[in-house]
Design a protein that fits this description.
Blueprint (H helix, E strand, L loop, with lengths): L11 H70 L1
C-alpha cells in the first residue's frame, strides 16, 4: 500500500474512509428527507381533514339554527292552542 497514489492529497486508505463517512452521512440525510416528506404529506392531509371538519361543523350549526327556529314556532303554536 505504500506505493498507492495520493487522492486529493490523501492516502487511498484515508480517501476511502472519508468517502465511507460521506456516504453514511448522505444516507442519514436521505432518511431525514424522507421523514420530512412524509411529515409534509401528513400535515397536508390533516389540513384537508380540518377544512372538511370545519365545513361539517358549519353545516351542523346551520341545522341547529333551523331546529331552534322550528322549536320556537312549535312552542308558539302550543301556547296558542293552550
Amino acid at each position: 500500500m505504500a506505493d498507492e497514489k495520493p487522492l486529493y492529497g490523501l492516502t487511498a486508505e484515508l480517501y476511502r474512509a472519508v468517502v465511507a463517512l460521506v456516504d453514511d452521512r448522505m444516507a442519514e440525510i436521505r432518511v431525514v428527507r424522507e421523514d420530512f416528506d412524509r411529515l409534509t404529506a401528513t400535515v397536508q392531509a390533516l389540513a384537508e381533514a380540518q377544512k372538511r371538519t370545519e365545513e361539517r361543523v358549519n353545516e351542523l350549526a346551520e341545522a341547529q339554527k333551523r331546529t331552534e327556529e322550528r322549536l320556537e314556532r312549535l312552542e308558539a303554536t302550543v301556547q296558542a292552542l293552550a
